[in-house]
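Materials and Methods. Structural model of DoxX family protein. The 152-residue sequence of DoxX family protein from Aminobacter anthyllidis was retrieved and submitted for structure prediction as follows.
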Amino acid sequence: MSLTLTTENSGRRLFIPALRGLYSNFHDSAETILRLVAGGALVIHGLGKISDPFGAAEMVEGLGFYPGAFWSLLLSCTEFFGGILIAIGLFTRPAAFAAMFVLLVTVWFHWVTMSQGYQGAEKSIIWAAIFLFFVIRGGNRHSVDARLGREF
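The predicted structure was written out as tokens:
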């Protein structure tokens, strides 16, 4: 049995074969847009935290992360600077891993600590899955990682 690697979409049978070119042409662009939006949203979310990096100390200690000042600072930097790194595609995998970890903590917080279940954790689950995608895939060819020719 032989395993043949094919490029994206080349070996798939499409219901509308004429769309193959469209899908192939925009494959990397769609992934880049997702990375830019996810990173940008994380920056915006972290903007309030980075202006007061120790402001979440009490909240993170309430989740069991001690000392609160350290974890609050780390949370602020992960969201703000990690979002910038993800958006531009520099150190994409470690930045996305850190963001995914933060989102998984928020899943725990909403689902278990606040007893909100899936409904309370839904957005965090979706965002964690988006960042998992970039942990696995990296920044793609439209990233600073690709320009440098190195990635994690």
